[in-house]
Fold:
Amino acid sequence: MVTVNKNYLKLQGSYLFSTIAKKVAAYQEANPETKIIRLGIGDVTQPLAPAIITSLHNAVDEMAHAETFRGYAPDLGYEFLRNAIAKNDYQDRGCQIDADEIFVSDGAKSDSGNIQEIFGLDNKVAVCDPVYPVYVDTNVMAGRTGEYNPVRGNFDDVIYMPCTEENGFLPELPEEIPDLIYLCFPNNPSGAAITKEGLQEWVDYANKTGAVIIYDAAYEAYIREENVPHTIYECEGARTCAIELRSFSKNAGFTGVRLGFTVVPKELERDGVKLHSLWARRHGTKFNGAPYIVQKAGEAVYSPEGKAQLKEQINYYMRNAQVIYEGLKNAGYSVSGGVNAPYIWLKTPDQMTSWEFFDYLLEKAHVVGTPGSGFGAHGEGFFRLTAFGTYENTKEAIERIAKM
Ligand code: MLT
Structure:
């Protein structure tokens, strides 16, 4: 008799952003004339930069000729892209990461979900609370989290590190020592950033305890302040304890194009095994590479024109972040984030729950955001707005909210 992976039955509801999309679609159907402004999922709205479009066109033309046509991509990704990443994202920042430590993928969401596969099921996982739901859900699917505890609103065998107003939405080193620690900075959902000294403490802790940090740096392009690290490898000792996940979605608008990468340093060993070789084995077996044309588009991100155009694009979104932050603050909301990140984290007014505020905002202002409780128990009473909308819609949304 066929049995199913019962761990899936422990998952709570559907994926957060699918739930929101369904609710919004139902509201729109019932109110077809209403202009809904979507500041929920962190999906970009600006078109791909011209340098990227040119590169895509050229790559498509190459695919039309036998001499330049490409089939399967190399396992780790094309060298032209891995070299550009190693140089621009790491070596130019003084971090020693080589091209053969970079694994190109179809995005950080897949990598952040898949990376747990190379670790034993008996590993104890620590996550921030609130947290990007993929880290927890994929560990639930794998059977690493124990049962769901409806009273606490989380899983029995996961170490949750509360990120609250009191600690500036930054996790504290857990007393119970985890094996795998998921960190995301600048943070999704709270928009909080960590200083280099702050991150160094985590690296020291991981090296001391033998834990591995899975560091999601998908939002590094939004860092504005000095002393906020762009990569965990700016910290001393990170090569022996950290894997880094990166995305082209947020820095270059690839949410629909799909490209990302994972860095696994060759020194990183646990249980007598190099994690690099495990991830290489997994990657080679389960993945046939991001498309050539997409990797060429990724290469253009690092060209001088690409860099200049993307800087403009990030500035565009960060102007939205400022509009949201200032507008809400002036309207009396308690807000954080939005300085080094495209997310603004606000406290719901009048003791409303996160979902009550979601409904209230949709009903009264026709604005969609993301309920904080969808990211974890400590997100209750909070709400996330994204700066990835158009400037006009963002301004209008905040004017509507201020008038509520
Ligand atoms: C978010 O809204 O949290 C992100 O867009 C989700 C993602 O990048 O997968």
Remarks:
- Residues 11 and 137 are 7 Å apart (CA to CA).
- The radius of gyration is 21 Å.
- Residues 304-330 form the longest helix (27 residues).
- The chain is about 35% helix and 15% strand.
